[in-house]
Structures are given as C-alpha cells and as structure tokens.
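Lab channel / #folding
Pinned by the channel admin:
"Please post every new chain as: sequence first, then the structure tokens as a reply. Keep commentary short and put observations after the output so the thread stays searchable."

First post following the new format, from NK:
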Amino acid sequence: MKILNKVLTLTALAVGMSAVSAQDYELTFSNKTSTNIVDYTKTKIEGESKSASQFSGITNKAEAELLSERVDIGAMAEFTFSPIQSTDDALKENDKDGFSFELSDYDYYIEFRPIHQITLGYRSAVYAWGSYLPVWDDNLAGANFTTSEGLSVVVRPIDDLRIGAGFEPSTFGLDKKQNEDEEKVEKLKPIINLGADYNFQNLVKAGFALRNVAGSWNYNKEDDAFEERKLGFGAFVEADPIEGLVLNLGFAHNDYDGIGFALIDNLDLFSLQGENIATLGASFEQGPLTLALDTALNFKADGETDGDASYDTYIGASVGFNVTEDINVSLTGIFGIDRDSANTDKADTYIGVNPSASFTFAEHHEVGLGFQFEKAGDYSAFNFPIYYKYSF
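Reply from TO:
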C-alpha cells in the first residue's frame, strides 16, 4: 500500500503540474521561523513538587499553494530543531543530552476540476459550513465530509450546493502476515466519508457529514494497537445575520480527534474529547476591532478516551486591535472544565492567557512576540513565543 500511495501521489502531481502549465495561475508562499525561547513547567509527580525549564527549540514552517482555474496544488513542510530531552524527562530528571533535527509535520493536497461542477481531490479535506471555531482556529474533524488522507470527489449540481465523498486507501496499510490478531485485522476496512452543505444567499449555511460509514477500526502504528472506531456524524450551521458577525453552531458524534485547546501543553494533558460534542463559534469584525468566542461541550463521556486528558467544557475568547495598518495587538483567554464523574461537585479547571503583538513591514515581512501562561491544579507552565514570517 505504501507503493500504491506513492504512485497515486506522483501521478496526481504530474497531472496537476501539466494542467497548470497550460493556464494562468496564482502562486502564494510563506516561511515562518518561530521559537518559544524557554519552556518552564511546574507540576507534582508522586506528591512531590517538580519544576523544569529548558530551551523550547526552533521550528521552521514553509507553505506554498499554486491556484488556477482547473488545478490547485498545496504543500506544507515543518522542520524542528529541539532538545532530545522532553519536558517529561526534565521533570523526572531523566537527563538526555543533545538535539534533534527532524521533519516534524508535513501535508499536501491536489484538486482537479475537469468541469466547473466537479472537483477531484487527493488529500483534500472539505469541512461543512459552521464547523469552524475562530479562537481555536480550526474546524472539527467530524465535519470533514471528504478526506485528508485519500481520494475525494465534490459535486456542485447547482450553485452553492456541495455534495462530497472521501475514500482512504491507507486503511489497507497493515501487513496482515506480521500481525497474529486476525480477528482485529479483519475489522480494518476502507474508511468512507460522505456529506453535503448548502449556502443560502450568504445568510445561512448548513451542512452534515457521515464519517467512517463502513465502521472500520483504526490501527495505531506507533503503539501497535487496534482502536475501535464507530460511525460518526455531524450537523453544522453558520449564520451571518449582520455585516461582520459570523455565528457557527455544530454537533459531532464520535469525533475521535476532539479539540486540543491548550496553549502550551508539553505533557499532553488538556483536550476535549467525547462521544458527543456541541460547539458554538462567534466572530465579529468592525474596523480595527476583532472579537471571537468559542464554546465546546462534551455532554456524554466517550469511555474510550484518556480520563486525565479529556475535558468536558472548553471556552475561548480573544480580542484583537489594529493600532495601525502594520501593528496588531491581541489578547486570548482559554478556560477548561474537567468534571469528576465520581463527584459531580468537584471539577478541575484550566486557565490559559496569551497576550501578543505583531508588526508587518516592507509588505512581505512580519514579526511577532507574546507571552503564554497556563495553569490547572498543581500544574503551571509559561513560555515566550516569537516569530519571523516572510510571505508573498
């Protein structure tokens, strides 16, 4: 299957490049170099207070998109230079010397439109209207009615209506000969997603997604473990009642990705996951002022997620202001609640704060700096993010 994936990728890119070369196109590019300077973390381990501070590393992220009438191609690569010793190692005094330089993340996609009404894609995710949370700055995975890993098709039979489907061939990637658990291997099936959305005169937009229709289990290669996955579905609505105001409402069932809402979270402690997730996102722009609000609720425990990592309520709020055309300041606050299922009167709370500022100069250059702090019970952490970005 690895060979099949490579063949599909190379074929798609070759077709895409040949199609783009014959027509007008728009190229965009950005390169962002960032660091948090130092990560300070304090927590309790086996009842004893521990703290650690260490260099956070440097990340370089490059993105490019080539857009045209028939073909769109995009790619992203992120490289990280960081200490081999993790925050958890530092807290437990497991000394590890040296640094690592690695490709920490990558992504790419291609879309081809043989006619205006049809888009064929590879690794091209399409999210239903209403699934975006502006403070978290992402869409719920449960709203993706194509796929970010395989083949997809989106049809527009009439203007403003999108009907899509996705198929992930990578689900066949497990070598059955090397795995003795035949019963669980047989539970691995192709992942098929379906959905649609409609834009009604830019006033109300609504959509739905059906995910993993065949009910395939998931094989976690890192842990060499099988994870049960069930049919997931979501319904989402976006309303634009007045100029500058956008309201998003959503519901997702069996969204196994959840929301990683924390600002720092070097110990992977904070996320909202569950069998049912309801979301509200709101944003408002008026002149130099930008306001945003997120809310997400997990109102029934999944039972399959890590209880220490799964929060029940997430609230995010941010305010931004353009002091001039080139200078922006903002303040973001995050609040999380993790109720104790055994004692409903008891709850752990998470608080995060992030003031920041950015400055654009010479049209293509941008620098930014800020301060991030988060606290939950005996845990607290802070760092000082800075970045330089070049784009055209």
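NK: The radius of gyration is 22 Å.
TO: also worth noting, The first helix runs from residue 2 to 20.
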